[in-house]
Amino acid sequence: MRRFIKISLQKPELAAALLLAGLVFFFQIMSNGVFLSPANLRGILGLMPEMALVAIGVTLLMICGEFDLSVGSVFAICPMTMAVLMAGGWPFWPAIVAGLLVCAFIGFLNGWLTIRFAIPSFITTLGMLFMVRSLTVVISGGFPPRLQVDAIPTWLFVEFVGPGNLLRASFLWFVVIAMAVSLLLSKTNFGNWVRATGGFLPAATAMGIPTARVKIACFMICSVLAGFAGSIQVMRIGSPLPSIGEGLELAAVAAAVIGGASLLGGIGSIMGGIIGAILIRVIDNGMVLSQVDSNWFKFAVGALTILAVVGNSWLRKRGQSMKVET
Amino acid sequence: MMNSQEQPIISVRNVHKWYSGVHALRGVSVDFRANEAVGLVGDNGAGKSTLISILAGLHAKDEGEIYVEGKLAAIDNPRDAMNLGIETIYQYNSMVPNMSIARNMFIGREPLKASFMGVGLLDEARMRTESVAAIANVDLHLRSPDALVGELSGGQRQGVAIARAMHFKSKVMILDEPTNHLSVKETAKVIGFVQSLKAQNVTGIFISHNLHHVFACCERIVAMAMGEIVLDKPIAETSIEEILQVL
């Protein structure tokens, strides 16, 4: 029993999960029961996948010990590539695959530059943030092409599905991807390598793990997920604006950190990153419903980030100091 | 030529290594024979760490050859060394602190239930039972394979590292300063372990700058200074004083 409590206390996503439960309860009361109404849940769950998919990739990469600031720009370039190609006569499927390949290449470049020149990924991806944003504007030619919505199977990505039209199709994509990445991290040898690489690089190297390839793979997964999330957003709003996703990189890092991922690598969980992303959505939505001046939104997210990390490290210390037989 | 009984398990021939202009190994030739416990000693910078990093696959040699069981061996990365049966236990622990014992035991060599293109599902039940057994085999008593390595004492961590090396049936075990930062009791345990290697048909290469530890558990001593081997004698034919003179 003590071991169970100890392990639970050390779960990285615990603080965020508790905060989420508390906030949901709080907003439900503040909004006189509107918060958990089907209509409002539709709004929250409909937009949540876009941010959460980015957070999944960023969390995975942070556990691997690296950092990606370029996700906001990658979020924009994927749908822009797709829209430009479709405007040039490409069918939908090759166009979106091309967009995702561009993202995979950006991820590869992020990883390769970081490792080849042994520079912090903070710098590599900061540079990439500007370069990719600029490229997005350049390929759009200044005037974003009209998205040919008719040519897109929107039912597969963004239309409302399920009982009471509660969810968008994007939510199902999100659930499947979240489970797949979670499994990859916790149940496979690759996941073991990711954690070892981020947790203690010298040990991972000494045990013969191909750490460079593991990191590059994580960079690529992160970029592709960000690009996919951006494509979903563009299919939802119907227009490939070159400015979408600005500021998303920091929100995604905040989500990962709120969910218990360590900036130093090795610690964190995909579930935590998702909870972090949901928390940010919940605050955004809950504040509106509670008729709080929306200018306080960023303040709340910032305060939450600090609070969650402080809470997490406190819980983890409590867990570690619990004595159980080894 | 030599018969198989006398053939060294590892034979290092005229190995050179430069680190950005520093000539760290200057033509090192040394043999390690089967079931032998060899102490490798030397001052800081003498080249002993460089030599074992090359044997462990962490660094590449610049010149020379290494033969393992009589065959020319290409050791380009740690996996090559492990596949040849050379396991290394490092001074700064080859364990990831925030991973469990069972996960650490199998880093890079995870048993899989099913796999596709090198990525597969971990056989976690097997990892747990085998790590419990491996740890018990080195006379260490840990109750749960799920405990984080970061929660173990230095000696316990060293014990898990040794258990891991033994589990993968190494032929040669290199222990790089394994007694550093250990308590007196834990040090005695590690020394006892090195003494027991012979009975298990494992060659031990014990790196230390504590000559007393080396004399307590090795049969032969190899001393290095300035990137060269300066002494190679059975323990019985030398003394701490003689070794201190050549270092």
From TrEMBL, chain A:
<feature type="transmembrane region" description="Helical">
    <location>
        <begin position="216"/>
        <end position="238"/>
    </location>
</feature>
<keyword id="KW-0997">Cell inner membrane</keyword>
<feature type="transmembrane region" description="Helical">
    <location>
        <begin position="250"/>
        <end position="283"/>
    </location>
</feature>
<keyword id="KW-0813">Transport</keyword>
<feature type="transmembrane region" description="Helical">
    <location>
        <begin position="46"/>
        <end position="64"/>
    </location>
</feature>
<dbReference type="InterPro" id="IPR001851">
    <property type="entry name" value="ABC_transp_permease"/>
</dbReference>
<keyword id="KW-1003">Cell membrane</keyword>
<feature type="transmembrane region" description="Helical">
    <location>
        <begin position="166"/>
        <end position="185"/>
    </location>
</feature>
<protein>
    <recommendedName>
        <fullName>Xylose transport system permease protein XylH</fullName>
    </recommendedName>
</protein>
<keyword id="KW-0472">Membrane</keyword>
<feature type="transmembrane region" description="Helical">
    <location>
        <begin position="96"/>
        <end position="115"/>
    </location>
</feature>
<feature type="transmembrane region" description="Helical">
    <location>
        <begin position="122"/>
        <end position="143"/>
    </location>
</feature>
<dbReference type="GO" id="GO:0022857">
    <property type="term" value="F:transmembrane transporter activity"/>
</dbReference>
<comment type="function">
    <text>Part of the binding-protein-dependent transport system for D-xylose. Probably responsible for the translocation of the substrate across the membrane.</text>
</comment>
<keyword id="KW-0762">Sugar transport</keyword>
<feature type="transmembrane region" description="Helical">
    <location>
        <begin position="295"/>
        <end position="315"/>
    </location>
</feature>
<dbReference type="Pfam" id="PF02653">
    <property type="entry name" value="BPD_transp_2"/>
</dbReference>
<dbReference type="GO" id="GO:0005886">
    <property type="term" value="C:plasma membrane"/>
</dbReference>
<keyword id="KW-1133">Transmembrane helix</keyword>
<keyword id="KW-0812">Transmembrane</keyword>
TrEMBL record, chain B:
<keyword id="KW-0067">ATP-binding</keyword>
<keyword id="KW-0813">Transport</keyword>
<dbReference type="GO" id="GO:0005524">
    <property type="term" value="F:ATP binding"/>
</dbReference>
<dbReference type="InterPro" id="IPR027417">
    <property type="entry name" value="P-loop_NTPase"/>
</dbReference>
<dbReference type="InterPro" id="IPR050107">
    <property type="entry name" value="ABC_carbohydrate_import_ATPase"/>
</dbReference>
<dbReference type="Pfam" id="PF00005">
    <property type="entry name" value="ABC_tran"/>
</dbReference>
<feature type="domain" description="ABC transporter">
    <location>
        <begin position="10"/>
        <end position="243"/>
    </location>
</feature>
<keyword id="KW-0762">Sugar transport</keyword>
<keyword id="KW-0547">Nucleotide-binding</keyword>
<dbReference type="InterPro" id="IPR003439">
    <property type="entry name" value="ABC_transporter-like_ATP-bd"/>
</dbReference>
<dbReference type="GO" id="GO:0016887">
    <property type="term" value="F:ATP hydrolysis activity"/>
</dbReference>
<protein>
    <submittedName>
        <fullName>Simple sugar transport system ATP-binding protein</fullName>
    </submittedName>
</protein>
<dbReference type="InterPro" id="IPR003593">
    <property type="entry name" value="AAA+_ATPase"/>
</dbReference>
